[in-house]
Sequence to fold (417 residues):
Amino acid sequence: MKFQRLRGTQDVLPDKSFLWQKVIIGAFEIFKKYGIKLIITPTIEDKNLFIRSIGEGTDIVIKEMYEFKDKKGRDIVLRPEGTASVVRAYIENSLPEKIDLCYIGPMFRYEKPQKGRNREFYQIGVESFGSGSVYKDAELIKLAYDILKAIGVTSFVLKINILNCSECRGTYIDKLHKYFKENSNKLCENCNSKIERNAAIRVLDCKEEKCKEVIDNAPMIKDFLCKKCSDNFSLIKELLNNLKVRFEEDFHLVRGLDYYTGVVFEFVTDKLGPQQNTLLAGGRYDNLVYELGGKNIPATGFAMGIDRVVDVLSTDLQQEAGIDIFIVADEKRMKKGIQLLSFLRENGYCAVMDFEGKSFKSQMREADGKKAGFVLILGEDEEKNNFVSLKNMKTGEQKKILNENLLEELKSILIER
Fold:
């Protein structure tokens, strides 16, 4: 019997996994520069954690969570996003009030699989606790910008908005609800369901073409901001300009989760199509720690979809760098070959060899298939005269190198690779 992966999941194979490594390593190198610490949280959580954090009226909670009852009858879910889990861990473990944390791992949502959207997807994220400053928002957006640049994503647009605080949100929500109610016949079924649940602000998230015109003409948040919110939005724009981070204002950007309370942002791309074009997104959520049982501590954060970023890098036809050195040896020279293999690796080179005793011709073909930069040949003549033959696979040039000079020669030859 043959088994297949479940719909909405993927096997990340070697022809693409090198891009995953590039994204993960690149992100964590930037985290180190910003002094951000890693946190690892469970994949399974109490269902009520997400009902309380994401919002009972959100699509995620209503129809997208993978949920089940454990053997003691508790409601368990596979986490649909990372923020709530990190906030829960922050509170439960009494972490320092002011701390910046990063995480990585799989998330799960039962959605219709399509390009850029799987039921299991991986995210890298950051959650920053203890600062309510707009300067922190700017730093976090710059962090996100630095990550995308570091991993080689060049085609993106940053969109920003600010959600009303509790003082000025009520009037806006009332106006929005009334507007969508009056135009409900022009909206899709899902949007009408949101209106009936008093979640009119969620309609702004809709990607359906049918709803686009109504949404485009909806009341804008900017017209309902109090002075504090307006000043904060002006400041974030000034700071981003000073940091040379280009952005666009999008007054219909609200994000799909209920916990956001201030600046929100998205990095979008035109490489994946209009439906699933968000690479990285986040914003401020100053009430969430308190709502999940902690102190009244401000926070802000973002998450990046590894799968989507890799898809963008794949469209640029990036290829994995080949190995540095392939060792070609006959059976009699296998012992020396494996010693040399270990020596090269200990000195920082990516080196491999074949252990099946194939002909030199077959081994050279394998070296070419692995995109080896150079081949080190160990044959009878080389052993007798205490040297190795080094062949440049790009130019075809071959030279003899005395064993005692090998490392020094490799350093000078491979420094350009």
Notes: Residues 14-33 form the longest helix (20 residues). The CA atoms of residues 133 and 308 lie 30 Å apart.
